[in-house]
Amino acid sequence: MPRVREIEDDGGDPILKEIFARQREAFGDLLNPTKVMAHCPPILRAAQALGASIEQSGQLPNSLLPLVYLRVASINGCPF
Questions:
Q1: Who contacts 33 (Cβ-Cβ below 8 Å, separation ≥6)?
Q2: pLDDT by residue (tens digit) across 16-68?
Q3: Which of 7, 63, 66, 68 could cross-link with 38 by S-S, CB 3.0 to 4.6 Å?
Q4: What distance in Å separates the CA atoms of residue 13 and residue 2, rounded to the nearest whole number?
């Protein structure tokens, strides 16, 4: 049982509605960190913007990004 209740319904919040729709389309469901950060939609949006800025910075080649994500998931014991 999670210590923090996971939010899976947008409750009419426009920020959550947009983010939830994008993730469900991309992944088939919501990612667990999104369900937890949904308690504070502005923080969720900022966290996603931080992730996007890393991709858009050009500091890493686009072909390397999926390998980095896979390695970080592996280190954290995450199946994704």
A1: 47
A2: 999 999 999 998 999 989 999 999 999 999 999 998 998 899 898 989 988 98
A3: 7
A4: 23
Residues 63, 70: contact at Cβ < 8 Å? no
User: For residue 71, which amino acid is it?
Assistant: R
Distance of CA 4 to the CA centre of its chain: 16
User: Residues 74, 32, 29, CA angle at the centre, nearest 5°?
Assistant: 105
Give residue 11's region: left, alpha or beta (phi > 0; psi -120 to 50): left
Dihedral sign, CA of 27, 55, 18, 11? Answer: positive
Q: Which residue is it, tokens 């969720």?
A: 44
pLDDT digits (tens, 9 = 90+) for 59-78: 989 899 889 889 988 998 87
